[in-house]
Amino acid sequence: MSNANVKKMIEERKKLLLELSTLDQLLHGSWLERYSTCSRKKCKCHRGELHGPRYYLVVNKNGRQKQKYIPVERKEAARAGVKQGERMLEIVEAITQINLQLIKEGAYDNETK
Ligand SMILES: [Zn+2]
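# zinc ion complex -> structure
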């Protein structure tokens, strides 16, 4: 691979890192909408009209899944945060590919920034 291509990859990596720094509302998890019944026996929810949806972000913490409640007034912002989280993973994957290539080219850890 030419020096120009190595330079290009390092430029691309810089761009990705810059974009990464803009993802300040990222949420790493999956979106969950839940409907439920309550404890009032005569409530309509026991005749099929469930309460909800209520919104949750499912996150992994110490290898266990947790459902974190999202207030309805934060729903749109949190959904955008989940999108940012997905973009974060794409960027991490892309940088990994670039760095693997740079390792192959011997240009991984001797480049000046
Ligand atoms: Zn109910």
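# post-check
Residues 37-38, 40, 43, 45, 51 surround zinc ion (CB under 6 Å).
Helices lie at 3-20, 75-104.
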